[in-house]
Structure formats: C-alpha cells, structure tokens
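Quick check before the chapter quiz. The format below is the same one you will see on the exam, so make sure you can read both the input and the output lines.
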Amino acid sequence: GFVSWPRRGKHLSFDGRFLHAAPSDLMKPGAFEQQCHYDTSPNMDEAAKKILDRKHRRVTFLVNVWLNYRPFNVNPFPETMIGNLSDCDLFREDFCLFG
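Here is the expected output.
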C-alpha cells in the first residue's frame, strides 16, 4: 500500500480499480484539530469569522477520468453552480480552491 500525505496544490493519480480510501485514523491524535485551528481577534464580528472559517477549511477536489467507459448514474457538475466557484492560481502563496 501507499500513503500520500496532504499538501497544498498536490496532485495524485492512481488506478481507481484498486482499493483506496482517506482513513482519518492514520493521523496523530489532535492533528486534525491543529490543522483546522487559526487565531481570531476577540473583537472580530461573525461575518469575519465566517470568512476565516471558509479560508481555513481543507478541501479535497476529486476528479474521475474514465477512458472507454461510461459509469452508471453519474451527472455532470451543474452549470448553475459554476458561478459559485472562484478562480485559483496553484502557484500563488495563498492558493485556495474556494474563495
């Protein structure tokens, strides 16, 4: 087996026919909470806290590619949601997937 630890902007590809998962029990105790922690100002309003929450959440973007195969019951990403996605630059220091 292989383990791939998360890193900002990382790309991973593999043969999906093999068993794969994202088991949280491989993390050290408290590691997830530490990754999600960020400092806030005591006088910060709720709107600012919500923005910080969004900027500090971990997002995994999964793309499946099927060659010569069409999976059953899979739908394309809704056109109406495309406007909700933000631009991103993988090479920026403050890279983020969703604004």
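If your answer matched, good. The CA atoms of residues 83 and 93 lie 24 Å apart.
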